[in-house]
Design brief:
By secondary structure, this protein is of the alpha/beta class. The protein is about 45% helix and about 15% strand. Strand 1, helix 4 and strand 2 form a beta-alpha-beta unit. Helix 1 packs parallel to helix 3 and helix 7 crosses helix 14. The N and C termini lie far apart (about 60 Å). The N terminus is likely disordered.
């Protein structure tokens, strides 16, 4: 049942009638959260209060009749183990089955290609710049998760199209058995020094964190110098890189075996290999700051399962889930209420690079294409 009324010229008699209709409807569907209001109470209400009350009842009535679909399809870049844990908890809480499709390196392009016929409901993972760009392309649906007001404005879209759920610092690190602290790089610019030739290994362009880092370094060099300097920096860096890996575990293995001394990775993976795999790693708090990526989530426009999509967004960014993946998978929360229940190292205050993610969002595709085709020496790319 749909009830319409004129918000500007509503009269008291029509208001009373609408209230009665709504109350009868609510009673019929046994919706028990609305308080009973008698006619005397209604007559004593000011028009504005009455309109607000009617709007509240109408919202609750619509919520009660909103049907959650039994499936939600999520395009993602996250690791399988974490996705399984999230899926299990979400299904247990809501009864909705989750189908995760991992699209590392292809996430944004897949969403774009399905714009006219979306096959997924949610996009989970990927950096702020990607979400900014896809929002501009009209690919997201607004959502209003319960925790949105707690989230710092730097971690969310001001209009409610996407939200950051994981902070991901990308940092330089080195094998301290191969390199002493005084010989280690202090900033990103040091990586191009001749003394580090063939001592550096990194991920390749399939890694979303590596793509974001490269774009941040380009943007930072353009801002502080010029575009030619930015591309020269990447060219010089490529000369010093021994290998690019499409597997993080193989890259860490190379560091552990002493095949290279320096690398770049997300902080959580460095901590994991240092603490759990007992690797002799030291983190570099870069003088110009480390790149801090915000992994985001958004519901897709015209999704096949829109209600389940909104429910998933609300669930995956909640303090409960953020704390769970912080403790079980070393992912840093964006909510302070989750951070206080997370491992102590996550509160460490590393310097963050000043990055304009909006500029990156508008240029990322062409920058990455140029990096892949004109800069990277493909003979150094190790495919597993």
């Amino acid at each position: 049942m749909k009830i319409k009324f004129d918000k500007t010229n509503i009269t008291m008699s029509i208001s009373i009638l609408l209230v009665c209709v709504i109350l009868v409807s609510i009673s019929f569907i046994q919706f028990k959260t609305v308080e009973q209001v008698n006619e005397t109470d209604i007559e004593n209400m000011r028009d504005e209060e009455l309109r607000e009350q009617i709007s509240s009842w109408k919202s609750k009535w619509e919520e009660a009749n909103e049907k959650l679909e039994d499936t939600v399809v999520v395009y993602t870049t996250h690791k399988e183990e974490m996705l399984e844990a999230i899926s299990d908890e979400f299904t247990k809480e809501t009864g909705i089955n989750v189908e995760f499709i991992n699209l590392k390196g292809e996430l944004a392009d897949r969403v774009r290609s399905e714009k006219d016929n979306p096959q997924a409901d949610v996009m989970f993972g990927g950096d702020t710049s990607t979400y900014m760009q896809l929002k501009e392309e009209g690919l997201y649906e607004k959502t209003e998760p319960q925790w949105k007001d707690e989230l710092d404005k730097s971690f969310k879209d001001s209009e409610g199209y996407w939200y950051g759920t994981i902070k991901t610092p990308v940092m330089m690190f080195y094998n301290k058995d191969l390199l002493s602290a005084d010989k280690a790089p202090k900033d990103w610019s040091d990586l191009t020094k001749e003394e580090y030739k063939d001592l550096i290994v990194t991920r390749d362009s399939l890694s979303s964190s590596m793509r974001s880092t490269v774009c941040a370094l380009i943007e930072n060099n353009i801002k502080t110098k010029n575009e030619d300097a930015a591309w020269q920096y990447l060219t010089d860096l490529d000369k010093n890189i021994k290998n690019y890996y499409n597997s993080g575990s193989v890259m860490y293995s190379a560091i552990g075996k002493g095949e290279a001394a320096i690398s770049i990775a997300v902080l959580s993976d460095i901590i994991d290999n240092k603490e759990n795999n007992k690797m002799p790693l030291e983190i570099v708090d870069a003088e110009s700051g480390s790149v801090v990526i915000t992994d985001c989530v958004a519901a897709l426009k015209n999704a096949p399962h829109p209600n389940a999509a909104a429910k998933f967004v609300d669930f995956v960014g909640s303090a409960k889930v953020q704390a769970m993946i912080a403790n079980d998978f070393n992912r840093i929360p964006t909510l302070d209420s989750a951070l206080k229940d997370s491992p102590a190292w996550m509160a460490t205050d590393y310097k963050a690079m000043d990055v304009d993610w909006d500029v990156i969002g508008k240029n990322q595709s062409k920058w990455i294409e140029k990096w892949e085709t004109d800069i990277i020496d493909n003979n150094k790319v190790e495919k597993q």
